[in-house]
Amino acid sequence: MLALVCLLLTTTVLGEKIIDFEIYDATPANFSVGPLLSSGVREKKIILLKTHAGAEKNFTITPSGILKTKTTIDREAICPNKAECNMTLEAGILPAENFQSLTINLKIRDVNDNTPRFPFGRIKVKFSEAAEPGDYVTIPPASDPDSPRYSVQRYVLRNAVDRFNNKIFIHKLIKNKNVGLENLRIILNSRLDRELIESYTLQILAIDGGDSRRTGTLKVSVIVEDANDHEPVFKQSVYKATVLENITKNTPIVQVSASDKDSGDNGKVSYSWNSRTEQNYANTFRIDSKNGTIFPIVPLDFEDVQEYELYVLGTDSGSSPRFSQTKVIINLEDVNDNVPDVQIITLHDDRGYASVEENSKIGSFVAHVSITDQDFGDNGRVKCVIDDNVPFAMESGLEKQYQIVTTKQLNREKQSQYLITLKCKDFGKIPNVADRLIDVRVLDLNDNSPAFQEIKDHRGKILKKDQLQVAENASIGHVIARIRATDPDEGRNGSVIYTLKQIDRVSERLLEIDRRSGIIRVSKNLDREKYGRIRIRVKASDEGLVSKHTSIKLTVKILDVDDNLPKFGQESYEKSVYENRPIGTFVVLVSANDDDVKDKEVQLRFSRPQDYQIFDMDESGRITTKQIFDRQGPI
């Protein structure tokens, strides 16, 4: 069967959208009723907020925003005894920044998928042979749960003639429009002669409406005898009763009563449901067959059904039983027996908490709150509030729909989590209250740069930035210092890495830094005589998508080690002195230097001790005579 779907989309105030669909009864499961989103906006998400009773059993919304059937649609089960079948679903369209409410109106059009049914497949009735034309017996009519257009439209009586082709019986449908009751009568059209014909076998056809009509059949055996000629008569054509919805099981609600003028078994009346009531409500109410008292056998719920319409058959006990029917209306009064049902929808339902980015503008979406209270009137009216001491507020839109939004910009580094108490209370005389705890997490933004904290040497001593030093003979890998920077942001936004750059124009990369630990090490052999100090810039960067960084300039002093030999100004000195010159005569000035820092003033001395007997040398390297020389004499 093809299902016709009609779509009408309108927009009203407060961002509410309304979509109307029509589908046919018996539409199969997994049938696409229609899209809930316009083309081009498939990235949006639709969530179901609340539904007409039973709608969630029959319909679902796919992740792509398609409304589909979950089961084969049974209009008669969804809307029993209703001429029109309409239901409403409430949904919400995310993302939160453009949250919209969506009302989906579904109309289920009936199809003729039910055959008229009589309470019995075969019955036996009796007419007295003394009966007069116009006398009748009443039989319960057929029922068809389809809508009025496709329910029973007419009856046809067959085999109602005798052997002489005389029309012995006719039928007539009696309707009481005031109370909605029907009785089907088989009416005697001609006198009976039991000696000629003792019985008749009739067929009554119940034919429903629609193009493809369905027919139910009842076989009626008519026995001709002196029989029951009165049908039961109820004291009231309609019985009404009103009870609280929390009435306990098996508590009497109402009693129906019928009398029969016949005597004996012909006047003894028993009570039962008609076929439609038996089908719809036999699991909800029971009737005492002897005294007509009606009891509930399950808990009743005003939120599911506010009024019950029952039909009771009064049947006498004659050999050819007669029937009559009465209507019973039971109204339920609401009791505030439902606590508000609070549904909290967040951007990340699967995580179990709500979230909002720090520094988001005031009024940013945090969560959607949908309240359902199945009670009616003030019992079903609900007001929700949250704590006063939190930077959030509740904004109301549609009835029983709220949004929780921010009232100020949040700073995750000051407070990363809020626990909000939500209270929803109805307006009943004895109100019901629902409490919910909403966990709100403040999501981190990379809004902080790393900050340097301290510098320590390899022994853990805290240094100033100009106190770094290393001996020139330090081995490769020697730890000079450890630098530490912190970033209060979270995750990669707060994860710090380090880089090092030499400021001086040095062709060799003498120092290096571990990018994670901040440890500065020697990476090449050092020579104080080439570089007395090394100026570096250390940069601490976080690992956010848009990284932030901080730099610091450091100076590493290279400490001297005595690793150079003194050098004379000349490889050799040759000087002459005249004989007979006085003691203290200047001979030569000897000079030597050392590249090491500590040995700039080199100590000079004669390598042979005996030279001190002939010459003298001061600290400056000035050599003078200690005796008068005679060229002809010994030295």
TrEMBL record:
An example GO BP is: homophilic cell adhesion via plasma membrane adhesion molecules
* Topology relative to the membrane: Single-pass membrane protein
Q: Name one GO cellular component term.
A: plasma membrane
What keywords appear on the UniProt entry? Calcium, Cell adhesion, Disulfide bond, EGF-like domain, Glycoprotein, Membrane, Repeat, Signal, Transmembrane, Transmembrane helix
Name a GO molecular-function annotation: calcium ion binding
Organism (species): Dimorphilus gyrociliatus
Instruction: Report the protein name in the record.
Output: DgyrCDS2084
Chain ranges of the Cadherin domain: 59-118, 125-234, 235-342, 354-452, 462-568, 569-632
Subcellular compartments: Membrane
Which residue positions does the secretion signal occupy? 1-15
One of the Pfam families matching this protein, by short name? Cadherin
